Amino acid sequence: MKLYKYIFPIFFFSFSVANAQKKWTLQECIHYAFEHNLHIKQSRLEKTNQENNLKTAKKERIPSVSATVSNMASFGQNQDVFGNHRRNDNFNNSVNIGANITLYNGSRLEKQIQKSQYEVEASAYDLERIKSDISLQIAQQYLNILLNREVENINKSAYENAQKVYEKAEITTRVGTTAQTVLAEANASMAREYQNMKSAEVNTKNALFSLALLLQLEDYKNFDVAGWDVAENVEKTDFSVSEILEKAYSWHPQIKGAEARIKASEMQTKIANTGFLPSITASAGVGTFYFNSFNNDGGRNFGQQYKDNFGQQIGLTVNIPIFNKGITKIQVEQAKINEDIAKNNLQQQKQELLQNIQKAEYTAENNFEVYKSAVEAEKSSKLALDFMEKSYQAGRSSIYDLNTARNNYVNAQGSAAQAKYNYLYQVKLLEFYAKGAIN
């Protein structure tokens, strides 16, 4: 028992540490959002609601059957045609079962089923669109974390180099080969780099926090992401807007959803036109009743009356619309307007998708040019820093010149990293439009 008291806390602590150290991959983040995001849950519920509407429409083809049981007791005086008054206390009971079915209504039921199917299809595409939007938001935040982490490493390296310079200046100042101002500047430079490193760490934590909020995680403080193998030097990827657009039109949910709504609106126009047509309904029923006058004790018993009074009914009803104040005509015109609205919405969605792809391709082109120039600036700054370090060690340059060269190199590294990740996001965005998935 005492051993259990020690083992269980150790096991629990180990489990907690392992859980806290979990690093999320991009696909794990996206999958988690698909399962827990409230917008996705809302859209999934709306899709289920449309599926229930479809089930209801299909069941309208089935005959409806109902049963009624009626009981009524009457007490009091009654007057006959001669003006005589007498007691009329009685009890009535009746039982009826009836069924009816629509035989013809201009195929309205079938058209309603088809419309409901298109609405289910549209709601499914709405769900996929929300998933797509959230996937892109997660990918952008994920890349932002990796960018901040790379900048953090750059600033950490700069701080370590500043430490080495300070340690060397401390030794040379102590032995008298350099002035006290050199040590002071080295110390100030190290403090600046330490501040930059801490700021970069905070930026990384803020980026992690933003992604955790997007995923709606409760334990956001222990959230972390796995690394992503990003090439040090990124090559340019060529894209064709027309080819990407053609592929996007074939799968993108905002296009497919708009197309499904056009079909639903066209079907609604056909449903409205059925209001001009006659409808035929068939009905059938069976029933019996029991009557007992309390003033007459010699009547037939309950079972005998139910048997004698049993009857059947069958009917056929034809409803021919003649005039309904022009309401059906207005409903048809309104349905056609909604049809035009749905078609216009499809064109708007296509235009929006075209502009998004054009913008992504244009931004990718510009970002790659910025990336190339940033890489060249980084190389030049590194070369200048190497020469400045040698010059400083030889005593021909001051520590101020060395710090300036080092700052220029750190800034160039940060700019190159920023340009690289900006370009990578646009590449992933274009790949998403073309393939419908984020790799």
Keywords:
single chain, alpha+beta, Outer membrane efflux proteins (OEP), elongated
Secondary-structure content class: alpha+beta
What is the CA–CA distance across the termini? 52 Å
Strand content: 5-15%
* Cα-atom radius of gyration: 40 Å
Largest sheet: 4 strands, antiparallel
Mean pLDDT: 89
Under the CATH scheme, which class of the largest domain?
Answer: Mainly Alpha
CATH topology of the largest domain: Outer membrane efflux proteins (OEP)
Under the CATH scheme, the architecture of the largest domain is: Up-down Bundle
State the total count of DSSP E strands.
6
Which consecutive residue ranges, at least 5 long each, have pLDDT under 50? 1-19
Describe it for me?
- There is one protein chain.
- With 439 residues, this protein is of the alpha+beta class.
- The protein has two domains: 24-62 and 107-277 and 324-435, Outer membrane efflux proteins (OEP) (Up-down Bundle), CATH 1.20.1600.10; 66-104 and 278-320.
- The protein is 68% helix and 13% strand.
- The chain has ten helices and six strands, in the order αααββββααααβαβαα.
- The strands form two sheets. A four-stranded antiparallel beta sheet has the order 1-4-5-6, with helices on one face. A two-stranded antiparallel sheet has the order 2-3.
- The chain is elongated, with a radius of gyration of 40 Å.
- Belongs to the outer membrane factor (OMF) (TC 1.B.17) family.
- Keywords: Cell outer membrane, Coiled coil, Membrane, Signal, Transmembrane, Transmembrane beta strand, Transport.
- It is found in: Cell outer membrane.
- Residues 332-363 form a coiled coil.
